Structure formats: structure tokens, C-alpha cells
Amino acid sequence: MALSHTADNHDFNMTALAIRMSRMHNGVSRIHRNISASICRDMWPQIEPEENPVGYVTNGVHVPTFLAQEWVDLFDRRLGPQWRYKQHDPEFWARIHDIPDHIFWSVRQSLKSQMFYGIRARLTEQNLRNHGSEAHLDRLLKLADPINPNILTLGFARRFATYKRATLLFQNLDWLRKLLLDPARPVLLIFAGKAHPADLPGQSLIRHIHQVADMPEFRGRILLVEGYDLRLARRLVSGVDVWLNNPIYPLEASGTSGMKAGINGTLNLSILDGWWGEGYDGKNGWGIKPVSENMEASLRDAEESRSFYEVLQDQVIPLYYDHGKFGYSVEWVKMAKHSMASLLPGYGTNRMVGEYVQKFYAPAARQGAGYSQDNFAVAKTVAAWKTRINAAWGGVSVRRLDTPGKELAFGDSLNFRLAVRLNGLQPEDVVVELLLSLQYNKTRLSQFKPFRLECTGTLGSHEHQFELNHVPELCGRQQYFLRVYPYHPLLTHPLEMGKMVWL
Ligand SMILES: *Cc1c(COP(=O)(O)O)cnc(C)c1O
Questions:
Q1: How far apart are CA 241 and CA 358, in angstroms?
Q2: Cβ distance 152 to 320 under 8 Å?
Q3: pTM score of the predicted model
Q4: How many CB atoms are located within 10 Å of the residue 431 CB?
């Protein structure tokens, strides 16, 4: 039980237990790493979240499962079967731009047709079960026409967890009406998804979508497809033109359906949260900056839905319908190709598993082998060292001996001299460090460059002297910190002990 406590709560905490019982920890996207490191900061109480031992490996999707067969066939023909072994190679995927636009576009249209066929079958079944009339079904299916799939189609499908805000686009129905009902540039919106049986607010989102989809003017323009599963997911992510995601930042740890869409040439229009925070490059879809986390929820929904309407109105719809003489939008195809080329190499499970091996599994295996040698002699050494550190650390302190000047001429050196009270520890049990940064930004520890101070003797019987002569490489205003932390070369992470004394 003690291993599962947090600083301010002595209930059983699974995360605290898991962190204490493991030596490597990771988030599933860069943003998620930072949020997790911050939430779990008390596990390493004297370390700032920027530096604590939490890493990240961004999720990926299984390309053979989610890349539509049409793309597989096209790649085989155009890029050669070796594309399968180049999945992680961005240079190789730049060759997507060599595929002629009309061929690329015809694959996209064919995938949309197939999606429409699938959706028609499901909606027909739904209508039958609900005793809907033939006329009602015709109205529903009017725009989802497999023979003529030229309508801009937006998809939103996932679990209906409340943080994903499935109904965000219903914030302003008048605006939505204007966007979907323009006779020259119609838009179709397809929803699918399930809520957990115990998630009543999630279920009420589904009810809300049903109600709006059933409003006379939206019939056939907003479709709610039941029975979301892997099969339907594969159809939707590859068949729609734009994949929507509008979670409440920063709650989308990674998200994966947008990756499935991206590798199929479907463009993402999403809040910059989770994987999209790093996947979006400014040209491979659309990224919506989240408003401040401190903003009140209803204001936030209003602001962010407004951003979605604006991007749809000013960018997505005009780009899609910019047909010119080809019958399709050349600029859209360019963006979709770039989206595929930029996302295929980065968001497959090959890259993900490779990163887990590199960052975690291989180092863990090496360390496990090392620790277990000689009947765990090394592990016992580290354990004894940790016990010693834990007992002594409360009495470790540091003071400054040199008098810091405010200014320095170029080429002069800075002399740092510290007296460290080690409370029975040895100089080699600690790192005494200078952190230097050109930026004046107290909270961004990651921007600092570290330099070690060396032990140069003892001061009386209780203190050790540590020194560094440092010649700054660059001119200008600089910021620095001095600190002491316990260190042993056999630790998994240099700051694993979670202890630090700042000067
Ligand atoms: C990919 C997938 C999900 C996850 O979707 P997110 O939008 O990343 O939450 C959920 N359900 C199914 C069936 C999927 O294929």
C-alpha cells in the first residue's frame, strides 16, 4: 500500500504503484508526455516535470490493416512491391508525388464509392428495423451516391467519450446549415461511434446527433451510422475527404483514427492535440489551435467551434470545390498527396515498435542483464546506494563561495566555487552542475546546457569544495542555475531518485 500512495493521498493509486515498480515510463505523444510528467511530478518531488524520467513514443497504426487495398495495389504498380520495406523512409514516400493526379484522385473516388455502398447497406438495415418508409430512406441516401461521389464528405467516428465533443459542430446550427446546404458546394457529414454502456453523457451525445440528423433540413446531409467497428472504421477513414477531431485539449492522449485517415489520403481537420500536435506540418491538413485551458467550458466550445466553421468555410470547402477543368481540385490532390507522404512513414506501428525497442526495451534488457549478474550483486549495490542517499539527502546543502559579477567581457572566464555539505555522502555520489541558457525563461529547463563542477578538496570537516572555470561561448544576456543531485552510473535515468538541491 505504501508503494501506491501519492504525496497528498494515502488511498491506493494504481499509477503511483506502477511508476514506483517500473524504471521506464512513457506517454503516447509529445503533448501527452508533458501532461503526464506534470500530473506525476510528485513521484520525483524535487525535479521539474520538464526533466523527470518520463519519455514518449507516439502511437502508430498497423499499416497493412488500415491502408486500403486500392492503395496497396497502386503502390505495387507504381512504387514497386518494395514499398513494404520502406514504410519508415520519408524520402521513399516523396515518390507519391510522382503518381499522376487523375490516378490518385480516381483511387480516392473509388474508396468513397465503396464507403457509400457500405453506408447505404447499413442505413437501409437501420431504416427497416426502425420501420422507416422507403421515401424516408431515399431522402437519407440521396447525397451518399456511389455512382456520383462528388460531394465533399466529412467524417467523425470514434468512441463517444464526452471529452471528444462529438457535437461541437452543432454549436451554431445556422452556420452549419449555411455550410452544408449550399446548392453549389454541398457538404455531407457522417457520424459513427459507440458510447460505453455506463457512459450516460456519452450516450446522450448520440441522441443529440440523432436529433439534429433528423431535422428536416439536415436529413441526408448528416448521417449517423450505427454499429461502429473495425470494418466500418476502415471504410470511413479511407472513404471520407476530411477526418474531423475536436477533443478538449489536452485530453486526447494520442488518437489514432486520424493516422488511419492520413495514410489513406484523407485530410485531417483537427485540434492540435495528441498525435496531431506533432503530425501537422502546416500543409498536410488543418490544425486548430486550442484556446486557453482556463477558459470556461461553454466559451471554449463556442470559440473552438467557430474556428472549425471558419476553416471549413474559408479553406476546406473552397479548396475541395476548386474544380477547374479537370473535374477535381488539383490543389486538393496536392495536399492529399503531401498528407500521405508526410504521415505514412511517421505513423505506422513499424516506427512505433522500433522506438519502443530503441528507447526502452533494449536498454531495459541490457540493464536487467547487468543487474542480475553474480546473483544480483549489481542490483544489491544500487539498492544499498539508494538507501544511503535516501537517509542522507535531507541534510545535503550547498552555499556559494565566489562572488558573482553581473557582467563579463568576451573571452573572460567565470569562476564558480561552491561549498557542498554532503552529510556523509561522497563527492562521487553527487553531480554538482551549472545550467546555462541564452534564454531568460525560468520554466523551460530543457533549453539549458549542463556543465559539471569538479570536487577540488574539503573545507573543514563537513563540506566539500566544487569548482568550475567556464568561458561562455556566446555573448549576450544569459541565465544560469546551480544544483546538486544524487548520481550513480548504474541508474536507469540520471534523475531517477527525484532529489535535487538548487542554489
Ligand atoms: C481507430 C479506432 C478507434 C480509435 O479512434 P480515435 O479517434 O483515435 O479515438 C476506435 N474504434 C475503432 C473501431 C477504431 O478503428
A1: 36
A2: yes
A3: 0.93
A4: 18
